[in-house]
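Loading example: each entry is read as two labelled lines plus one structure line.
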Amino acid sequence: MDTEIRELVERWAAAIRTGDLETVVADHADDIVMFDVPPPQDGVRGIAAYRETWPPFFEFLASGGSFDILELQVTAGTDVAYAFALLRCGSAEERERRPDQRLRLTLGLRREGGRWVVAHEHHSFPVD
Amino acid sequence: MDTEIRELVERWAAAIRTGDLETVVADHADDIVMFDVPPPQDGVRGIAAYRETWPPFFEFLASGGSFDILELQVTAGTDVAYAFALLRCGSAEERERRPDQRLRLTLGLRREGGRWVVAHEHHSFPVD
């Protein structure tokens, strides 16, 4: 179970880096709730709204931004799982200026029809 | 399962509001990893470090701060669960200035010895 989820997360992150939107959303639930780095305050709700958040981020990555997983811990049960990760995410200038800065990511997953789907995401940077 | 976790989260939040540290940590795993609003970038690791984060927050609450759960969604499996919540969290002045601002909270839980324990927390505010 852990391996299956680890592969899902790595496939998702790789698709983000190449701007492959269909693969980014392939393992996500229709009712996903994402707490993104920027607002909305109440979260991004539903797969349609989730899809819309990605193209601007693909542009950021295409201009030299990073989205590299440095640590990933998975806790998988029989039918529900969660995972958390630390990422290096920033422009070249930001990575130079704040090499220690981390994007924190938490995922909530459900097992549906014999496969795992991501139903919750929480992305944030610490605030000094 | 959902009800048990909902009660756990509400008991924890009530203990935060009254500054009752023993109840705040009562249902938490020794190996908890918390992504707190402030740094450290790599998260707060272990129950001893987790305990230390609370007394300064109790002071903030005692001086008029809020920590009110507005929405709580629980996804519980047989042995692993996660939950996410939106909270009104700020000083009286912040609540006046930004009434729509929300603290986002995600929890990861494991079932151990017939009860649920919180093994992961992620707290953040959206960044404009």
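The mean pLDDT of chain B is 97.
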